[in-house]
From TrEMBL:
Belongs to the tetrahydrofolate dehydrogenase/cyclohydrolase family. This is Bifunctional protein FolD. It comes from Kaistia dalseonensis. Residues 143-292 form the Tetrahydrofolate dehydrogenase/cyclohydrolase NAD(P)-binding domain. NCBIfam families: PRK10792.1, PRK14188.1. It comes from the Bacteria. Keywords: Amino-acid biosynthesis, Histidine biosynthesis, Hydrolase, Methionine biosynthesis, Multifunctional enzyme, NADP, One-carbon metabolism, Oxidoreductase, Purine biosynthesis, Ribonucleoprotein, Ribosomal protein.
Amino acid sequence: AKAAAIIDGKAVAADITARVAAGTAELVAAGALPPGLAVVLVGEDAASQVYVGAKGKKASELGFHSVQHTLPVDTSQADLLALVATLNRDPAIHGILVQLPLPAHIDTTAVIEAIEPAKDVDGFHPINVGRLAIGERDRALVSCTPAGCLVLIKRVLGDNLSGKDALVIGRSNIVGKPMAQLLLQESCTVTIAHSRSRDLPALAARADILVAAVGRPEMVRGDWIKPGAVVIDVGMNRIPAPERGAGKTRLVGDVAYAEAAAHASAITPVPGGVGPMTIAMLMANTLVAACRAAGRPAPT
Ligand code: NDP
């Protein structure tokens, strides 16, 4: 088989962010406010601090109004909800992102539901989830990781995915379910697999598009892949890498990359595939929210 094309998520993400920067300049030139993104972090989780820092930095680079609220780990739910309410009312803020996971004493669902849906740039609010489900994507904000996966799929297959068989492995609210909804919206025939699914290899054998969002290192094997399929690997798993020295680790996906690349027509690497797209789509969502707030057409 011909070697698969490597889908360069870093390059596509750079292209998306360049468009967002241009759209931002256009919006401001038209006299509207620049997109405003507020990122809220509760506590000092090291990984969350890195994510939040990267989001704020990217927002500033693109010409956004970017603010970060860092609250102590023992912040009460009432205080967090009060901050969300303030941001909901602030006309300079178009996107509100509360970094997850929240400390255990805070009800995550209550916080997500407190965010004004029009400012919910993570796309987690039930109103946005519902709008996607009823086919009103143009009025919704869609979860960033699956939205980024769809962009990558279209870069390979073009805009018309109608009739393709798609398999999504994983049914989380953040990745698997919205991914399946997006592909359904594109008129794919969608199968959603999860931990109770039987015979994943047989399901994969039919899939023209396979999205793995499981969190199990290299679970999807090369001989599962339909020849010529497009494989999108969302997984980010850190595994021991003794070959790099004692105590060293490396990042792998949910797909056994080298094996799968021998069967697929195109595949995302880990790292450098889906990962860079997530933050780019967050910026795109914030621009969309700002355009809608200004009554201007949102870029597609
Ligand atoms: P979750 O743990 O929330 O969901 C995992 C899903 O995989 C569940 O639906 C689960 O099924 C299913 N699953 C678990 N084991 C199996 C199995 N043996 N066979 C089939 N399905 C199985 O994870 P997320 O959706 O949040 O994330 C998935 C992966 O993507 C993780 O590696 C995460 O790190 C990565 N990720 C990467 C992002 C990026 O920017 N690149 C962003 C978000 C996530 P069930 O529902 O039955 O339990």
